[in-house]
Design brief:
The protein is mainly alpha-helical. Helices cover about 45% and strands about 5% of the residues. The chain has one domain. A two-stranded antiparallel ribbon has the order 1-2. The chain starts with a helix and ends in a 12-residue tail after the last helix.
Length: about 100
């Protein structure tokens, strides 16, 4: 998944580069968070539902309503735990969650 994929899913013109730094920095973090949340590495690639959910997650965090921590230098962002993410976003990931036995 690339920043351009996110832009397409969110209806952001590809020529608009104002969010590129944010997307390029946050996208790998969001993907890793979702892989952990779903307990799946998605070896065959991210399903369309996951891609849409990640796009919505990034859009949500961009609004800075649920950022737990943030660093200005080198643009770092920390994702909240799943209980702080709205159900309207988590619903994209629930069909892909795998049970993990401890």
């Amino acid at each position: 998944m690339t920043a351009n994929d996110v832009k397409k899913l969110l209806g952001i013109p590809l020529a608009d580069t104002t969010k590129d730094d944010y997307l390029n920095t946050s996208l790998p973090l969001a993907e890793e968070f979702i892989k952990t949340y779903c307990n799946d590495e998605f070896q065959g690639g991210l399903p369309a539902g996951i891609q849409l959910g990640i796009s919505k997650l990034l859009q949500y965090y961009e609004q800075k309503t649920a950022v737990v921590s943030e660093r200005v230098d080198d643009l770092a962002i920390a994702f909240a735990d799943p209980s702080q993410i709205p159900q309207s976003i988590l619903i994209f990931f629930k069909p892909y969650r795998k049970v993990r036995f401890i």
